[in-house]
Amino acid sequence: MHKFKFNLEKLLKIREHDEHEYEIKLGQAVSKCVRIENDIKHCFSEIDRMIDTGAGAGLSQEYLLSMDMYRRRMNADIETLQSQLTSAREEMEKVRADYLEASKKRKVLTKLKEKREAEYYKQQRKNEFNEIDEMNNGRAAARAACR
């Protein structure tokens, strides 16, 4: 029995490669979003830490002023990071859509390959059965002719 050869194998390999590339890009986009989210959490924890350390009585006016300026800077950083997160999420959704499209294209070819492979081997088994049947019929005819 001959091995199945898929005519579109090179195209399938290209589609698999494309899907893998988009999978990597999607992972990078997700990690960028997670990094930005962690930076936002860090800013909030810095504000909380500052409030906790400055909660004591008898603080100087300069210290309170510096705490206020630091809090304002952290809030500005948070706003900047949130806008970055919004654009990073938009980019992630675009990459996810591209990944899903590449995956869909690869799956179509994979299913086609599986279908054709199944048909090929089914036909091979049928041909093999017919050959064996013909050999058996030929032997039976030869025996009948000898008697």
Topology:
Blueprint: H1 9-53, H2 61-146
Helix pairs in contact: 1-2
Number of strands: 0
Which percent range fits the helix content? over 70%
- The count of helical stretches stands at 2
- Weakly predicted, low-confidence segments: none
Instruction: Bin the strand percentage.
Output: under 5%
**What is the alpha-carbon Rg in Å?**
34 Å
Task: Give your account of this protein's structure.
The protein is an all-alpha fold and 147 residues long. The protein has a domain at 9-109. The protein contains two helices and no strands. It has helices at residues 9-53, 61-146. The model has no long low-confidence stretch (mean pLDDT 91).
What's the quick description here?
This protein is an all-alpha fold and 147 residues long.
Defining key terms:
single chain; 147 residues; mainly alpha; 2 helices; 89% helix; rod-shaped
